From TrEMBL:
Transmembrane segments: none annotated. It comes from Neobacillus notoginsengisoli. PANTHER family: GENERAL STRESS PROTEIN, IG HYPOTHETICAL 17707. This is YtxH domain-containing protein. Keywords: Signal. The keyword Ubl conjugation does not apply. Residues 1-20 form the signal peptide. The keyword Signal applies. InterPro entries: Desiccation-related_membrane, YtxH.
Amino acid sequence: MGAKRFLYGFLLGSAAAGLATLFTVPQSGRETRETLKNSKDTFISQLKDLKQSIMDVKDASAYATKEGRVHVSRFIQEVNTAIGRWKAETLPQQIEIQKEISEIEAAIGHLENELSAHSATSNAHGVDHNNARQ
């Protein structure tokens, strides 16, 4: 939509400039017609160049879009592969860490049981730890 509005504005501005020039030229009719004819050819040539430039930009952007999709797709594939390798490489460490955590939890549970048993034994023998410390 923006390109159409630009082109319409360009054409309208060119026509207005042509009319203003036509009414303000100090040349004769024949000279003015000759100048207009030459200007028309130049204007048409410039329009063709503009059209070609716009087509080149369109083609370049289409190519860049296509290439971008290919590169993004490859990048995503490589990232997924790297994540898969990382998971496979870290799995043994993860299993080992889980095993160690289970052992630590078991040791803590064992210590808690010993503490409970020791407290129960101490209380059964009538030992008051608070008074014994003083």
